[in-house]
């Protein structure tokens, strides 16, 4: 690998024609020009073709899927369609800073061969209406207090996902070795993929934010975002922790994941099953007072919900 190699940038899109001029446009305006830009249309019903044509950039190629499969399926289609040995990802409503790939390539080319990728910090800001602008907030990810940000990141990823997958620049060989994005998941898709990817090699990190995305606050009124849906969350946590358990992982980080699954089960009215997850977590970390509290409150679902509401009111 050397500076100047081409990068295939994969951008899944579904009914986001209105945002492509901003999101894909931020890729077209990169200071690093050697790009193949793949817009993977997941059976949109709006004018994606017209939006791509309006970009007027020969590097942009529209790839159409035959049926709607979600972001994971669209990313897999993008990987299969990519012509080059370096891959990057981008979400269709986000923005990459103009020198993102220039900075990532310069770092990547300076690293030893056992490094399979680099990633950068990102700025996340709340998605609010004009009337709610006074409540807007922003933060830098990964958070500044995190210490281990480069090298072997699998142990850190095992504790929880802290890498924003769309900031990554990756060797295609490592992506293929990690396996495809799991199309059965509706949320935590990035974490599941990153768990497998970080086992393939080391990562470099750029502390300067090079990516900007919006998020819906968890406590927003009427928030029905998939990533905050407790049913999808419990399914993904139970599925991913099942994979980790079968792979032999039994450390304290698993207790946190079992507790999270238990909390989501409480939110969807399954206290008996939630107690099984809380008990599994307690067996790993028996001195954790929060787990004992979860176990006791799981027999009083109303009180458990009240306590959860107070602890997450400002999250």
From TrEMBL:
<dbReference type="GO" id="GO:0016740">
    <property type="term" value="F:transferase activity"/>
</dbReference>
<keyword id="KW-0808">Transferase</keyword>
<protein>
    <submittedName>
        <fullName>Glycosyltransferase family 2 protein</fullName>
    </submittedName>
</protein>
<dbReference type="Pfam" id="PF00535">
    <property type="entry name" value="Glycos_transf_2"/>
</dbReference>
<dbReference type="InterPro" id="IPR029044">
    <property type="entry name" value="Nucleotide-diphossugar_trans"/>
</dbReference>
<feature type="domain" description="Glycosyltransferase 2-like">
    <location>
        <begin position="8"/>
        <end position="139"/>
    </location>
</feature>
<dbReference type="InterPro" id="IPR050834">
    <property type="entry name" value="Glycosyltransf_2"/>
</dbReference>
<dbReference type="InterPro" id="IPR001173">
    <property type="entry name" value="Glyco_trans_2-like"/>
</dbReference>
